[in-house]
Amino acid sequence: MSAAGPRVVIEADGGSRGNPGPAGYGAVVRDAATGEVLAERSEAIGVATNNVAEYRGLIAGLEAAAELGAATVEARMDSKLVVEQMCGRWQIKHPGLRPLAAQAATLVRRFDAVTFTWIPRDRNRHADALANAAMDRAAGRPERPTPVAEEPRVPAAADSPARAEARAAARAAANRATSGPATGGPAAATTTPGADPATVPASWEPRTGVSATRLILVRHGATELTAQRRYSGRGDVPLAERGRAQARAAATRVAALAPTVAAVVSSPLSRCTATAELIARALGGPPVRTDDDLIECDFGDWEGRTFADVRAEFPGEMDAWLASTTVAPPGGESFVEVTARIRRAREALLAGYPGETVVVVSHVSPLKILLRDALAAGDAFLHRLYLDPAGISVLDTWPDGGVAVRTVNDTAHL
C-alpha cells in the first residue's frame, strides 16, 4: 500500500432484531480531511447476533477502504467489544467471533496504519441507519428511507489541491474496482513496484526483458542478549565475538551469491552496521548506508528481559500481543506500526535500485515482515518463522509487482 494513498475514516455498525435474530450491518467510508462520503456498504446477513453483525460491518468498511486505495484508516464504532478486541485489550472468548476478528486483522495488514476508536451511538448515525435498513430487509419489512447524518465539510478554502487529488484518486480506484474495460471483461489489475505482494495476480509465467530488484536479507550476528534469549529491540547492543564470526561467514556467503551489489543498506544499530561493514568489505567496498526504518521493533518494557520473565510478569499483555499485530508491548511498538515503516523502506529500495541487487542488514522483526509480505502470508507467520543470527534470505521483485522468494534463512555458511 502506498503511503501516498488517501486517509479515510470508517464508521461501522451492525445489529440484530432479537440477538440472535434478523441481522444486518452498515459501513461508511469518509475522506478524513473533508468528511465527504466515499463509499457505503449495507447488507442483510440473515439470523445472527449483534456482535457478529458489528464485526461484519467493520470488515465491509475495511474492504471498501482497501478498494479505494486508502493508506491510513481510523475505524470508528459504537461497539466497545469490537474496538477493545481489535486493539487486543479484551480476549475474544466467543468462538463464533474469532474467525471474523481474524478476517478483520488480515484486512488491517493491507494498510500502512489503522486505529480503532469508540464513539457514542449518536455520533454513528449514518452507519446505524444503514444497519437498520439492512435489518429491515433481513426481517422482510418494507425498507424505510435511510436518514443520513452528514458530518460538516471543511470549508472550501481548506480544501487543498492535494486533498482534491486524493479524493479523485480514491474515486478512480473505486471505479477500477467495480467496472471493467469497454469490452465488458474484468477490470485489468494495476500494480506498482511497491504494491502489497498479496494483491499482485499470481503467475508462473517467466518474466523476460526486465530485471528484478533482488534483496539479500541478512540478520545481524549474535549479541550477548541473543544467547540469553532476551528481547533486544532499540537497545544498541554490540555483536558478541561469536556474532562477529557469524557476520564474517555471512559476508563470504553473500559475496558468493552476488559478486555485484549496488549497495548495502543497514539498520542504524551497531550490531547491524558492524555486520554490514564486514559484508561490504567482502564485496569489495560498495557503499553502506543506514535507514532508520529498518530498525528493530521497540519492545518497550520488555526490552532486555528474558522471554520467560515476560511471560511470567506480563501474561495477559503477551497473549494479546501474540493474538494481534495491532497490539504493542507496554510502552513499545506494534507490528502494524513496524509494518508501515518496513513497507516504506522496501518501496524506497525498489525505487532507488531498480533491477539491481541490494543487501539489507536488519533484525528479526523487520525481516520477518518483509518475508511475510512477499509470501502473502498471514500474521501467524511472524510467530512461526525462525531466523537465525546471520541467516540469509533472498527475494526478487519485478516492476509489475511480481515477487519470487528464492531463499529463507539460509545458514549453510554457519
Structure description:
The chain is an alpha/beta fold and 414 residues long. Strands 8-7-9-6-10-11 form a six-stranded mixed β-sheet, sandwiched between helices. Strands 3-2-1-4-5 form a five-stranded mixed β-sheet, sandwiched between helices. The chain starts with 6 loop residues before the first strand and ends with a strand. Helix 1 (50-67) runs parallel beside helix 3 (98-108), helix 7 packs across helix 8 and helix 11 (335-352) crosses helix 12. The protein is elongated, with a radius of gyration of 24 Å. The chain contains 13 helices and eleven strands. The chain folds into two domains: 7-178, Nucleotidyltransferase, domain 5 (2-Layer Sandwich); 213-410, Rossmann fold. 45% of the residues are buried. It has helices at residues 50-67, 80-86, 98-108, 125-139, 161-178, 224-227, 241-257, 270-282, 307-313, 315-323, 335-352, 364-374, 381-384, and strands spanning 7-16, 21-31, 37-48, 72-77, 113-118, 213-219, 263-266, 288-290, 357-362, 392-397, 403-410.
